[in-house]
Write a structure and sequence with these properties.
6-stranded mixed beta sheet, alpha/beta, Lambda Exonuclease, Chain A, disordered N terminus
């Protein structure tokens, strides 16, 4: 018989509930973070520690909001003018619902200009035809993978056009195609699984549209083929490792070069 002393505390029960929910569903971002550093995953998704939004993340999310609005207008066949796009950018930049941003003196105005130049460059160079109606824009979808003994996969596709899955990224350096294909494999394989489960057909490929924050902004598009059977198997094995790690509460640190920019650096140093 359980005694009062043996009963879990409310905090422990809450953590159990959170881990159970994480066991039931997984996204590409959660899976990638878990495999990169399980302690960082614990801080972000289990303890849910809140950190200020970084300038880089704010710039990226603002650019993403503009491209989302532009693509939704195309889907409605009511394309936006450049003036309307700029107004959308200013509103998105001013949005602080996700919390304040820690700016260095003079940094905000410089980043604000950079972000708009990225949007302007992308739209003026017509990297996606304004006349072609998208198949889907910013769509939340899921795939039930219980038949494989795996959790429900969830995700949001930025853009699907003519059977191609398109994902937007902002970066400060020119991407290398082979390295990008490797570093984003979990994400693009997850998107392919989601697309196939919801359409009943294979994607025509994946395009990664990198908006590069240089003195003269540029757009680099990495074309990737449809997911192979080997890539799907690789993804499913990674998801199995995720489940086993959650079951064991295997939340250990993975020190490396990525630690220099980790928002949980101080918390990690105190881990024992």
């Amino acid at each position: 018989m359980n005694t009062l002393a043996e009963a879990p505390t409310p905090t422990e029960r809450s953590e159990q509930d959170i881990i159970r929910a994480l066991h039931d569903t997984v996204s590409a971002s959660r899976l990638s973070l878990f495999l990169q550093c399980r302690l960082k995953f614990y801080f972000r998704y289990v303890l849910k520690l809140q950190k200020p939004k970084t300038p880089s993340l704010h710039l990226g999310s603002t650019v993403h909001a503009v491209l989302k609005a532009w693509n939704k207008a195309r889907w409605l066949q009511q394309p936006l003018t450049l003036k309307e796009v700029h107004a959308t950018y200013l509103n998105a930049w001013a949005d602080t619902t996700e919390g304040p941003v820690e700016w260095e003196p003079g940094e905000e105005e410089a980043d604000k200009t950079t972000g708009w130049r990225l949007c302007d460059t992308y739209l003026r160079e017509h990297h996606v035809s304004a006349e072609i109606k998208p198949d889907a824009v910013e769509v939340s979808i899921e795939a039930d993978l219980r038949e494989h003994g795996l959790p429900r996969l969830i995700g949001i596709l930025d853009l699907v056009q003519q059977g191609h899955i398109i994902d937007y990224k902002t970066t400060s350096s020119t991407p290398h195609a082979e390295k990008v294909a490797h570093s984003t494999e979990i994400q693009i394989s997850s998107y392919a699984v989601l697309y196939r489960h919801n359409t009943g057909r294979n994607e025509n490929g994946v395009q990664l549209h990198h908006l590069v924050k240089l003195k003269n902004p540029k757009v680099v598009i990495t074309q990737l083929p449809a997911m192979t059977a080997a890539q799907q198997t690789r993804l499913f094995r990674q998801m199995e490792a995720y489940l086993k790690g959650l079951q064991r509460r295997d939340f250990i640190p993975s020190p490396g070069m990525h630690c220099s920019s980790c928002e949980f650096f101080n918390e990690c140093r105190q881990w024992h």
